[in-house]
């Protein structure tokens, strides 16, 4: 107890001496331009619609959202340039609250791309369901701004802020479909469980602060490097709580229980965003906390991530196979994919970060495209999601079926697609770190999960076709937005599958700093 | 020769042309369906022509890889588009090149010709790629990608149980190869680790050398040029050490070198057993070999992983069965030779008895189960299990004759089983059944078909004078030298093959024909025309296998000496004299060799 108190007070005293109450932090505005663009666009869009009461022209909302997201991504260019300049390199800004490094820039771009895809899908969806309005787009942009904050957070409090901005928007998004009870249910479920997870995270921050005297990741790292804690129970408890909160967000087992229900109930375009953007932001936070703050405690967290990865891989693959609802299938398959990212994360090497970034980036387009198809096949009411609803799709809409098959095979890890390289890099990272059994388990679950993708393909291509259904399915409307999204996703999936260095290059450049800190 | 001089990338072309064909066919509008088949034949025949060109330009005295191309693909991982063929893969590439256009001419799909030909062309590209890849990663990619077209072919154009068969095929094979990917990646990383370790030793030497040179330079003493050369050499080896590579030849030769050093130490009594980390820990080598072996064993298939094969063969459309048996099964046996023996001489030697045993079980089991089949297509499918057991036995006998016989047998099996499946396709077209009991006395109605069937069947049985015999004989002769009792038991399989095939033939073609049987039309001229090349090959390779054997032999001999150099394995002297000269003379009197043991 005494030792504990000493632990608690020593850093505080040290901090007291260093603290200068008058200093206000200097704000390097250019480092948060992407964030400002996202938030500004959200507020602007809201204000504008309050004045005009209707979109300026058809497709204005998705266009504005996409432009904002792409703009935010483009605004990262000068930052990236500055970071890559060997003389200047990465730095912290806003009094150390955010880290401006390759990793945060890369993840910002990933999150922005997921916003673009989701916005393109939402257009047709909202019109079809008679829900058109700016709300979804505004929330999407706000949520993404939270994600961007998480990706750059260098302070646990900032991380928490980012997480809450992200989550609150997504809770609402999940409940967006007014007339579907399941959508309301999904929103509520996600909200209740998510708040619970946030509480864990907050408690973890408190405990970590208690143990190290700081919430700043760099300072935590500095403290842990200098001070050897003999009694580190408090710190470990804090770390565990932080992990619970973050693993919940990325839907890792055993904190995955919300995923299938929420994915099934939430509007399909929103699910596309949840599976890509939210997951990417969650992993960004996880990687920052583990790789930066708790770098020296790698021996303690690595086995935990190892175990969680195995559990996540198995739960995702095994549960996916027994589903009959395609949305639930993909929900479980996204759990399996989260497991693969964890395989890369647990490597605790530069290669591991690079592999996770590659995985998240390529998965964004895989899952975005997949949910584009699901949105289309779901039809008005968003409830045609059983395997039977896909039967004979290859006859009725061959192009649609072929694209879905491509995206599914890519998720299964078939070569010449981005999904294969994503898996390959994750496995390589694990093998490089000596985790051979983990790599083997991961690949075996990939085979189990392949069964699920094949089931959907069988249904589309090979199932006995009831001719009566064909004419109806032939009329499946493909909105322009969804078509554009599909083209983007297919191009990225195949392009990265053949020339992976277009993505590994930036991912490799982005890692250097975070890990080698 | 022309190809070698012009540096025209024949192999790359042989992979890209069918791929381009597949894309082009996918773009043909629905109103111009009639051009699809000619296009498919054109593209696959062009590919076939490329492979035949390679056959002609192949330098038979060269045991190394020819027509090699090498381009960096993923620099960070040292992955390259490395292709090349040697005597072992040459005929498999040619087989893939030739068998595809033949099936295009022979069989037309019942529906959706566009997708059907597109998938088949992709399959052709994948097969040629897998047989010619000299990069572990590239090989894996091709090995894996061929599953997709085959899955769609079985599922889309197959018979009653097609979906079940397609799923089973895909999942079984993917299960096998999943661990191979882990194995490949582990191998590359361990190889790099070993290189790093060597470079540490080198960098110590480098530092010492640098210092002594510096001292002498400062004091004006002459430094001999050799020392500067050594300095450059060491610097290069230290600098490149952390670069990963997936290059098959580089890894295999590096391993062999280190294993040879180990072996020398063991022989000199300096080391008790192979346990060094040099470049691969012996334990790790065993595990990685097993990961590879699992993938190949599923593909071959070896007993007890064969259960996908009868389903896939039986349910696949005729073209699917021909390609599956003729080309795709060889990916497994070829993998054993190229990525088993060549890459892991040590572990292959260690596991040889196990795999040979599984091969022998496959020979007997396949034969016995084939005998009991009611469905003639299933019977032929099980006969493949038996035939490929022979190839596995020959490969793991590790003698020149055994491996060479195995390679030849891969080609033979491709020709004769391919031909058998084509004939069965004709039978089905006429009678709409594969049920043996539903047919009898067909010989009366279809004398030509019966005659052709007899020839192909006898080739499959291994009748002297036909191609099957040469391979089987070499395998048994080669296996007898190192795996005596395995060879003795396997020889019984030769008799069993005669039993099940002859019995099936008897039931279908002999006996009293019913009216329906009598109404069965005989082979048409067109059908005979596309069977003719296969029939000619069956006879030609049986009578005069020399042109094939003399191309296979140098590479196989090099492989055997590669194994000998890396391990304590020594090929029994009787086998070292080679076979390409003898084999042709031998088979007159060798008829009882096979079973005489």
Report on this model:
The complex is a heterodimer of chains A (517) and B (597). Chain A has one domain (27-516). By secondary structure, chain A is mostly helical. Chain A has a two-stranded antiparallel ribbon. Chain A contains 21 helices and two strands. Chain A is globular. The relative contact order of chain A is 0.11. Chain B is mainly alpha-helical and 597 residues long. Chain B is built from 26 helices and two strands. Chain B has a two-stranded antiparallel ribbon. Chain B is globular, with a radius of gyration of 26 Å. Residues 1-5 and 582-597 of chain B have low confidence and may be disordered. Chain A binds chain B through residues 409, 414-416, 420, 424, 427-428, 431-432, 436, 439-440, 443-444, 446-447, 450-451, 454, 458, 461-463, 500-501, 504, 508, and chain B through 74-77, 140-142, 144-145, 147-148, 151-152, 155-156, 162-163, 166-167, 170-171, 174-175, 178-179, 181-182, 185-186, 189, 287.
Radius of gyration of chain A equals 22 Å
Uncertain runs of chain B: 1-5, 582-597
Mean pLDDT of chain B: 83
Tally of strands of chain B: 2
Order of helices and strands of chain B: HHHEEHHHHHHHHHHHHHHHHHHHHHHH
Number of helices of chain B: 26
Distance between the termini of chain A: 33 Å
Overall domain count of chain A: 1
The string of secondary-structure elements of chain A, in order, is HHHEEHHHHHHHHHHHHHHHHHH
Number of helices of chain A: 21
Helix content of chain A: over 70%
- Mean pLDDT over the full residue set of chain A: 86
Total beta-strand segments of chain A: 2
Name the structural class of chain B.
Answer: mainly alpha
